[in-house]
Specification:
Elements: H1 2-65, E1 67-72, E2 75-83, E3 88-92, E4 97-101, E5 108-117, H2 119-127, H3 131-170, H4 173-197, E6 207-210, H5 215-219, H6 222-227, H7 229-252, E7 263-268, H8 276-287, E8 292-295, E9 321-323, H9 331-338, E10 343-345, E11 349-353, E12 356-361, H10 377-392, E13 400-403, H11 406-409, E14 418-421, E15 428-431, E16 437-440, E17 462-470, E18 475-484, E19 492-498
Parallel strand pairs: 3-5, 7-8, 8-9, 9-10, 12-13, 13-14, 14-16
Antiparallel strand pairs: 1-2, 2-5, 3-4, 4-6, 7-17, 11-12, 15-16, 17-18, 18-19
Helix pairs in contact: 1-3, 1-4, 2-7, 3-4, 7-8
């Protein structure tokens, strides 16, 4: 019995010890488990931080170094790759707009755009008739070289960006290396997915933005474009050659000999949405040291809202741009032009620009709207007569009247020394018996994209004129007619004309006389095929 009592006490003592140790063991177990959990969470956060640094640094590196400029033919093309959730390929053909293709499913955006036209290469191509064929044969290899350079540079930039970002955050070369591997792996995976999902057929289904939204309607059917591709290519080559030859011709042209105060006015008209016109205008503005550009209308073709972006190039010129609305320009077009800081829009009023007093009025017609009751030539002349009467009572004499259609400008004969107009796509000039010189400009845009529809033997040339104005009398002293060959032609011609009697008096017609339209048969500028006199 004593033994049983002793055993019971021992058992009770052990049970008490175990009961006291059990909570402590449980607490230690929980603490150890928590420590392991925190360790796992800390390691996961460190891994996540390394991956995040790799992704962020790779994105920054790709944004900064994911573009190259590669020569393709006479142009420098900028190729770029950047992260984008919607995998696509974009062709930027500013100022016309952009073409977007859903070519792949990877989160990468590939973009190509013209960076610069190298005129030395273009001129060399122009002088060698076989250069076009050689360029067509070499474009593939040049593009392939550019794409390889782009991918190599993109990988290096992304990996380096990831490493530097991780090094700046963690100050640990090991973690920086892991971040760089992360960026390399993600970029390699995206590239592989691009290759695996690339769909060449997407090229046939582009999305048009900007002015190109109207390209299919303006240019014509796809079948027509394919059938006439060689003709379009020849026109493009000819245009590049024309601009190059214009540089060469203007560099050797003697400047009008007058004092440094001579005001140089560039008269352009009827651009009709041709983006090549801006190259010509910029070239002439620079080469001739132009003080002011005067545009006598039809800068667009349909006057649509999509075309408004086209006039943004006005703002890229460093000189005032005097403009009147043409028959193809809408009031929306006029507002778009007015939005340019250097634009001077005239619509029934006067403005003094570079010391010259201009009067201008927009064409009351809007040709693209066939439902509109547009005035005929007789009604247009009557509207112009009312406007001429208004200028007769102006406090300051008008030096140059700017209107789109010569029919609207008839009544200004004898009231102003010089009338500038356009509309007919055919340059001509004539001095009226009243002493007023009428100057109608051709199409500075080669009649726009519609020039592609003309027969090859009837090209519309690109035409503009540089007018030299005496700042003391505000009278025309001389002018240079610049002509670039249109479709199928590769000529550049500049002619100098001297005003015989710049200070001749003006003789207003009798009040009862009916103004008659000036005829272009006198002093008409020759076509590009004719030899200069």
């Amino acid at each position: 019995m004593a033994r049983d009592t002793l055993a019971g006490r021992a058992h009770g003592h052990d049970g008490g010890v175990l009961s006291r140790l059990r909570p402590r063991l449980a607490a230690a177990g929980r603490a150890l488990a928590g420590r392991f959990a925190r360790l796992r969470r800390g390691r996961a956060w460190r891994v996540a931080a390394v991956v995040a640094a790799g992704l962020l640094g790779g994105w920054l590196g790709l944004a900064l170094g994911g573009q190259v400029v590669t020569p393709i033919g006479p142009a420098d093309i900028e190729l770029s790759v950047s992260p984008d959730w919607n995998g696509e390929t974009v062709l930027d053909v500013s100022p016309l707009g952009k073409l977007e293709f859903d070519t792949h499913a990877a989160p990468l955006r590939f973009e190509a755009g013209i960076s610069e036209i190298r005129f030395s290469a273009a001129e060399e191509m122009f002088q060698d008739p076989e250069a076009i064929d050689r360029m067509a044969a070499s474009i593939g290899s040049e593009l392939r070289t550019g794409v390889i350079r782009l991918f190599v540079q993109a990988v290096v930039a992304a990996v380096l960006g990831a490493a530097l970002t991780a090094l700046a955050v963690f100050r640990d070369w090991r973690r920086a290396g892991f971040s760089a591997l992360t960026a390399l792996g993600v970029l390699a995976g995206a590239g592989g997915l691009t290759y695996a999902t690339f769909n060449p057929a997407a090229i046939a289904e582009p999305r048009y933005t900007g002015l190109l939204a109207g390209a299919p309607q303006v240019v014509g059917s796809a079948e027509n474009v394919v059938n006439r591709f060689s003709q379009y290519r020849e026109q493009l080559a000819g245009l590049v050659g024309n601009v190059s030859q214009l540089y060469e011709a203007t560099s050797a042209l003697p400047v009008y000999e007058n004092d440094d105060d001579t005001i140089r006015v560039l008269h352009v008209s009827d651009i009709h949405l041709n983006p090549a016109s801006w190259n010509v205008i910029r070239s002439l503005t620079e080469q001739f040291q132009i003080d002011v550009v005067v545009d006598t209308g039809d800068i667009t073709d349909r006057g649509s809202a999509a075309e408004d972006v086209f006039v943004d190039d006005i703002g890229s010129l460093d000189v005032p741009y005097v403009w009147v609305r043409g028959a193809h320009d809408s009031m929306g077009t006029q507002r778009a032009v007015e939005a340019q800081e250097n634009a001077v829009v005239l619509d029934g009023g006067t403005a003094e620009v570079r010391g010259i007093t201009f009067y201008g009025a927009g064409d009351p017609r809007f040709s693209p709207d066939q439902t509109r009751d547009n005035p005929d030539d007789e009604e247009l002349a009557a509207i112009g007569a009312e406007q001429a009467e208004e200028t007769a009572g102006a406090e300051e004499a008008v030096d140059i009247a700017v209107l789109h259609d010569p029919a609207q400008a008839q009544a200004f004969s004898g009231r102003v020394p010089l009338v500038l107009a356009g509309h007919g796509h055919d340059r001509w000039t004539e001095v009226e018996p009243t002493g007023t010189r009428f100057f109608a400009q051709g199409s500075t845009g080669g009649a726009g994209l519609r020039g592609l529809d003309r027969a090859a033997d009837e090209p519309t040339p690109y035409e503009a004129s540089v007018l030299y104005i005496d700042p003391r009398t505000d009278r025309l002293q001389a002018w240079d007619d610049v002509t670039l060959g249109g479709l199928g032609l590769t000529s550049a011609q500049i002619e100098r004309h001297i005003e015989e009697d710049p200070d001749r008096p003006l003789t207003p017609p009798p009040p009862t006389a009916t103004p008659t339209p000036p005829t272009p048969s006198v002093s008409r500028s020759p076509s590009p095929e004719e030899e200069p006199s």
